[in-house]
Amino acid sequence: MKNLYIFLLIFTASFIFAQEKYILALSKTDKKMVVLDYNSLKIITKINVGDDPHEVITSTDGKTAYVANTLNGTSHEINVIDLKTFKPLKNIDTRPLYGSHGLAFRDDKLWFTAQGSKAVGRYDIKENILEWSMGTGQNTTHLLYLTPDSEHFYTTNIDSGTVSIFDHVLLQPTVPPTGILPPNAKPRWDWVQTLITVGKGAEGFDVSPDGKELWTARPDGTIIIIDLEKRKIIQEINTSVLGLHRMKFTPDGKYVCIVSVKTGELLFYDSKTRKMIKKISSGQGAAMLMDKEKNRLFISCTPNNSVSVIDLKTMEVIQKLDIGGRPDGLTVAEIQ
Predict the structure, then answer these.
(1) What's the predicted TM-score (pTM) here?
(2) pLDDT for 307-330, tens place per residue?
(3) In this structure, are residues 239 and 221 in contact, taking their beta carbons and an 8 Å threshold?
């Protein structure tokens, strides 16, 4: 009897834990954040968000979701949702920055791009304050990647046709024309931007797991590979597939998946040989999510009003999900 009790206790605990892992997906038409069961992919609930939800991310502990609203660069709110209760919390007011889109979260800091302000901001969740921002000087600063040590971040600037590389560096005092530094002159930490011209329209991008390469793509079908150490383009690949939009490295880093929002083709490229190894029809893709645990890829096919699920082992579509009109941002939420 005692062994049976222990078994039931372990089983119950495992079941409860399993229920606290979800797939989150946004519907722009319905203005909802959709919560799906991680295993069955059945819809658990839908939560109201802002007028133009584009990207979603969770806190490190998975208990809170953040949804960026863009509204063509005019919105100043990021939605906050409690994932324990599935209830909306007080929105974050990003003013004076407008048009939040790309998101990153680390060490109780929410980083976001602000398209309407040509900038990147960082919001301190604990202090409830916009603690820092930095202008890019570029048009439509869109997606964001923050390195694990938070010492570098990258953005794509769609209409300017550039990639921004920002490095956190210790700058020495500037020597004035007199040639003599003031007595209070000291080194200071600041962010320095390097711009790489990649061509207008480049939007989706990802960084290799070793942090050495950044891959992006233009709608004309060109893949651009940047060496992040040398800060220069090392290769351009003509795929002949128009409408290339978003891309992700697979969890093992072996392949890069690039989807077209125009043709609905999904390309699988070997990250070492840089050769295409397979092309399938996945749907006209926008946001992408790599799920390492189940080795699957989710693609929000916004024009098709569906989310495609791809088995990364077979490189085939295994399911299509209906989460509402014009799906976009995706993420995994695992509550700790």
Answers:
(1) 0.93
(2) 999 999 999 999 999 999 999 999
(3) yes
